[in-house]
Each structure stands twice: as structure tokens, then as C-alpha cells.
Amino acid sequence: MSDRCDVVVLISGSGSNLQALIDSSSNADSPARIRAVISNRADAYGLERARQAGIATRVLDHTQYAGREAFDAALVEAIDAYAPRLVLLAGFMRILTPGFVRHYQGRLLNIHPSLLPLHKGLHTHQRALEAGDAEHGCSVHFVTEELDGGPLVVQAVIPVESGDTPESLARRVHAEEHRIYPLAMRWFAEGRLHLGEQGALLDGQALPPCGQQLRN
Q1: pLDDT in tens, the chain (216 residues)
Q2: Total number of domains constituting the chain
Q3: Where is the active site (predicted)?
Q4: Range of the domain at 182
Q5: First-residue to last-residue Cα distance in the chain
Q6: Which residues have a Cβ under 8 Å from the Cβ of 169 and sit 6 or more positions away?
């Protein structure tokens, strides 16, 4: 496909969501092309996933920089070398500076393992169980300066079952993450998904506050 949307993916770990994105973008009809995978950890297995797919990789060790601002400035330089239209956070375990977020405003997406705005931050599956939630899931959202607080694009919703543990919930939520993140990437690459002044737009129509919800 000509004029494909160039994408850079940021990771810190095993890269299971990255693998789903690679698998999706490797299809001949995919409007997206992953140009590079960048990690702040040299031991992130996602780097090997990228290499196996023939995708360029970079490692920027955040511990080698004087602070968040210095690291994020180097990260911007590394990303922009590939001139991506879209940057995806796929398990990138860094809190980004406001300057970084503003630089990529409207073209920076993240996936979070909860039905935002519920359970921002970490340990979402345990917290969903402790709260007695009847439903759980995952969310793709535009990144803003508010942690896990940007406009929602799409959510996958699953029921919480009586015997669920944090581990069983995590497994089922991961499967849904691997479904909705490639979908959001495709929408953006096709020019269907945008960030407007009032929130996320799909096909020119404002998405609801929860984004588009998909249920099994």
C-alpha cells in the first residue's frame, strides 16, 4: 500500500501488544507501517520481536540521563528521526514530560488495562476485583498531560467472573488489548481517527466519553 502511515512504538517490556501491532501491520492491506521500536530497557524482549520482524530498534537507557527532561529530549530526537505520523505507547513504563506530550499532541496513543477513567495507574486487575466491579477491560486513549486521562478512543469490555483472580483477569484483558490496539492504529492510519478540540473524533463524529465500546 502506498503512502502508509509511519509508526514508532515505545516499549519497556515483553512487547505482547507490540507483537499484535506487528502482526496487524504486516498484512498487505495494512495502512500502517512500524518504522522503529524504541525501548528504555536494553533487556526488553519486545526488541527481539521487532528484530525478528525486520523493524529498526533503538535503546535509550533513561538512567544515563540527568533527568526526565533530558531523557525525553533525547527520546524526541530518536523518534523524529523516523518522521512518524503516529507514536504508540505499548507498555512504556515512563511518565512523560508535558513538553514531550505537547510535541506529539494528537498523534500519541496509549493502551491502559482498565475501563478508564476507572483505575488509573498500576495494579488495575487487583483494584477492579477489590472494588467489586462487574465489568473490566482495557482502553486506548490519546495521551495528554493528565496521566491516563486523555480522550478515549475505544474500550473492550469483559465481564468479571465469580472465580476471577488478578491473573485470570489479566489474561483475558490482554487478549482484548491485542484486539483493540491494532484497530485504533488502523483507524488513525486510515485518516479516520483524529483528536479534536472537544475530544476524539472518528469519521468526523465525536466519540462518546467512553470511546467506542466493544463487548464480547
Answers
A1: 458 999 999 999 999 999 999 999 999 999 999 999 999 999 999 999 999 999 999 999 999 999 999 999 999 999 999 999 999 999 999 999 999 999 999 999 999 999 999 999 999 999 999 999 999 999 999 999 998 999 999 999 999 999 999 999 999 999 999 999 999 999 999 999 999 999 999 999 999 999 999 997
A2: 1
A3: 112
A4: 5-215
A5: 31
A6: 125, 128, 129, 136, 160
66 CB-near residues (< 8 Å, 6+ apart) = none
Q: Which residues are annotated as a binding site?
A: 15-17, 68, 93-96, 110
String of DSSP letters for the chain = --SPEEEEEEESS--HHHHHHHHHHTSTT-SEEEEEEEES-TT-HHHHHHHHTT-EEEE--GGGSSSHHHHHHHHHHHHHTT--SEEEESS---PPPHHHHHHTTTSEEEEESSSTTSS-SS-HHHHHHHTT-SEEEEEEEE--SSTT-SPEEEEEEEEPPTT--HHHHHHHHHHHHHHHHHHHHHHHHTT-EEEETTEEEETTEEPPTT-EEEE-
Give the pLDDT score at 1: 47
- CA-wise closest residue to 40 among 59, 14, 15, 57: 59
Q: Which residue among 103, 112, 141, 178 is the active-site one?
A: 112
List the grid coordinates of 202: 472518528
Annotated active-site residue 119? The verdict is: no
Q: Residues forming the annotated binding site for (6R)-10-formyltetrahydrofolate?
A: 68, 93-96, 110
